[in-house]
Design a protein that fits this description.
about 400 residues, alpha+beta, Rossmann fold, 20 strands
């Protein structure tokens, strides 16, 4: 359960950005938050709002990058660069990342300093009593061209730790040696629609990938059907068919192709999903990313949550996270959004504003960190009036 992240020198960010999922003490205790086993009250949703090109996507890309690096960087090619791009005015400085999360009723802190060439430092700490104590630290020794690695109950043999590559996480490496703590960390469930290049846009490949998810899980397939039909999209159901596709090389592969069912009188008419509206396709794809999170717990990182959807769809989508019935495991979502109507659905602790200055440096701050913002303010009206900043200058 991610509730804090710090980013420095990543993409459009130069100054340190600190985003916390921990709720303010003054925010009403309702279904939009939950209390963890360690006693923290965390938000189930966090909206990131700001003008175009303000740095919203860069901020959530940093979260998606950390998830990939911790879990999958070992699978990277030996000589492959780390997919990082520092701010152009700080090319000689590594990017810094820090996250805090809760696992087994304990608080953990992970930090990373890296650029595209190598990891310079990596560490994992666990909070024991009142203070954090290191589980492992890894620091690059440039003079001797090696890492200095210290461990305390991490469980990776030192000779194996010393084999860690410059472009891989020690956690991802330890998971290959089946270190229990590493396996537990990499099993954390995070789904996102962003990669190193930004948001993955709606296309046939994305739809086919979503269909494979639905085909493999009857529960979320039924949930998707019920939600899409209930959202008044003109559907009476969605059918996913397994078909054989012949590649250009002549090789055959099985793919899953969706069809929308439309009932006219007593007859259901099947329509290939590529002919459905972009809104229907967008909802179908979005649900393939958030329903597994809602069922299993974890974190969804979504860029442009309302993309291809009517702004009124934000309410039922966020309600899936806020309702204990549809979110029994307290899954969380962090998302960017241009539909500022979302401000009327959230507390001030659940809104992050992002703004870029004339030097192309972005800053991000939580709305409740601003003086004078009251819990009963009409956040939408005040934002539209320019009281909080982070609005387009047109």
């Amino acid at each position: 359960m991610l509730y804090s992240i710090k980013v420095k020198n990543f993409q459009s960010f130069l100054d340190e950005v600190h985003i916390s999922m921990e709720m303010s003490q003054h925010v009403p205790d309702d279904d939009r938050s939950f209390t963890t086993a360690a006693g923290k009250r965390l938000s189930k949703a966090m909206a990131i709002i700001g003008p175009n090109a303000s740095g919203k996507t860069a901020l959530i890309k940093s979260m998606a990058f950390l998830d990939w690096f911790i879990k999958h960087s070992f699978q990277n090619k030996v000589d492959a660069p780390i997919p990082l791009a520092s701010h152009f005015s700080a090319k000689d400085q590594p990017s810094h990342f820090e996250i805090e999360f809760e696992m087994d009723a304990k608080e953990w802190r992970y930090s990373l300093d890296a650029d595209e060439h190598r990891v310079y430092s990596e560490s994992l700490y666990c909070k024991q009593s009142r203070a954090f104590s290191y589980v492992f630290t890894r620091v690059w020794d440039g003079a001797n061209n090696k890492y200095i690695i210290k461990q305390k109950q991490f469980g990776l043999l030192q000779k194996e730790a010393e084999k860690v590559r410059e472009n891989a996480s020690l956690i991802a490496t330890a998971a290959q040696y089946e270190v229990p703590l590493a396996l537990q960390i990499v099993s954390g469930f995070v789904l996102s629609n962003v990669n190193v290049f930004g948001r993955q846009h709606l296309d046939d490949q994305q739809i086919i990938g979503a269909s494979a998810i639905y085909a493999g899980d009857e529960l979320i397939r039924n949930q998707m059907n019920n939600l899409l039909c209930g959202w008044d999209l003109g559907l009476s159901g969605v059918k996913v068919e397994r078909q054989i596709h012949t590649q250009e090389s002549g090789k055959e592969e099985h793919i899953f192709v969706p069809f929308g069912l439309h009932k006219v009188g007593d007859t259901n008419h099947a329509l290939m999903f590529k002919h459905e509206s972009s809104g229907t396709q967008g909802a179908y794809l979005l649900l393939s990313r958030i329903l597994p999170i809602l069922n299993n717990g974890g974190l969804a990182i979504i860029d442009e949550l309302e993309a291809d959807l009517h702004p009124h769809m934000l309410n039922p989508i966020l309600d899936l996270f806020f309702s204990p019935k549809t979110n029994p495991k307290n899954a969380q979502i962090i998302f960017t959004c241009h539909s500022v109507e979302v401000l009327s659905l959230l507390h001030k602790s659940q809104v992050v504003l992002v703004e870029k200055n004339q030097d192309c440096m972005s800053d991000a701050w939580r709305l409740d960190s601003m003086k004078g913002v009251r819990a009963d303010d009409n956040l939408y009206a005040k934002y539209m009036a320019g009281a909080y900043g982070a609005i387009p200058q047109v």
